[in-house]
Amino acid sequence: FPTWKRTLARRARESQMKRFCRAQAIQRRLEEIEVTFRELEQQGIKLEKLLRDENESPADQQTQWTNQLLYLVQKKNNLMTEESDLMIAVQELKLEEQQCQLDEKLRSYMNKEDALKTSEDEKAEQDILKQLVEVVNKRNILIQLQEEKRLSEL
User: Fold this and answer.
1) What count of other Cβ atoms lies within 10 Å of the Cβ of residue 102?
2) What does the alpha-carbon distance between residue 104 and residue 146 come to, in Å, rounded to a whole number?
3) DSSP 3-state helix, strand, coil percentages of the chain (rounded to 5)?
4) Which parts of the sequence belong to the BMERB domain (predicted)?
5) How many domains does the chain have?
6) Which residues have C-beta within 8 Å of that of residue 153, sequence separation ≥ 6?
């Protein structure tokens, strides 16, 4: 193997490991969000019952419970937004992995000498190139979606 091929293979492994670690971190966070959703739901149910059942409670107490309930709703909305962002990140990771695989396949066809390429090789090379363009376009759409979402939040 020439040095450049070893370097390419090493960089591909490194980027794959980074994607894997990032995917694991996203998965852990999604699980944490799910647990927090359940906890917030339970707290919300308790507060709703208190508000419905305790009509004789002082107004200050009911106001406090209402404020707590609104806080829980706001927290849940924030978690839903974060979950949505993480799901977009998961899609982006999948597309990134797909792009790397297609890059590798395309590189193997392009490294073949033109004289040795069959018509099937040339067709496969064109197909891979089309797939690669589609993946890049999908990643671009995700990035635009994230940017629009960020701007709308501002």
Assistant:
1) 20
2) 28
3) 90, 0, 10
4) 13-154
5) 1
6) 81
Range of the domain at 54: 3-153
Q: How many residues does the chain have?
A: 154
Quote the CA–CA distance of 60 and 32 in Å, as a whole number. Answer: 34
Q: Which residues of 139-151 are buried (b: 16+ CB within 10 A; e: fewer)?
A: beeeeeeeeeeee
Look-up: residue for tokens 């971190």? 25
Per-residue pLDDT of the chain (154 residues; tens, 9 = 90+): 688 888 888 998 999 999 999 999 999 999 999 999 999 999 999 999 888 887 677 888 888 989 999 999 999 999 999 999 999 999 999 999 999 999 989 988 888 888 888 889 899 999 999 999 999 999 999 999 989 988 988 8
d(CA 92, CA 79): 20
Strands, DSSP E only, in the chain? Answer: none
